[in-house]
Fold this sequence. Notes:
mainly alpha
Amino acid sequence: MDPNKNTREEFTSHLVAVPIPDFAAPEWKKHVQRSQVLLDKLAHHPAMAQNLQQTYMTPAKSKNNIYFQWDFVGRTLAMFYKVKPSLQGLSKQEKEQWEDATGRTTFAKKLILDEMPGMLNMMTENTDPGQKGAHPDFGEEILELAKHLDDD
């Protein structure tokens, strides 16, 4: 995929379509599948509509909370893909990547569910001051998915 030519929707479709190998460890499979579903829901949230058909590298028209989490979850999913799905014989780098990705999953959950009150709004507003006070609701479906991101 070429970030200068492919849209955010194409990047999303690519990330969520990566097949889960039969030999994948249950923990890897759980994290990847949940992240795939969440990424797709974030991408197709109404607040992402004006960003979705832009190329990946084009500055987003609306850098709102949904966009912020779409980017964060997408990058986290890409990190999971860099770790052997079996979780066996991981190199030091893969172990670190796994720990980072699982930590980011927990952080995404906390941000979406507002478990650290106001943190996501503050992070979004620091990135784009024009977003101050203009934070779209995630909606029940995304909130429900986020609740189970790091469940066993």
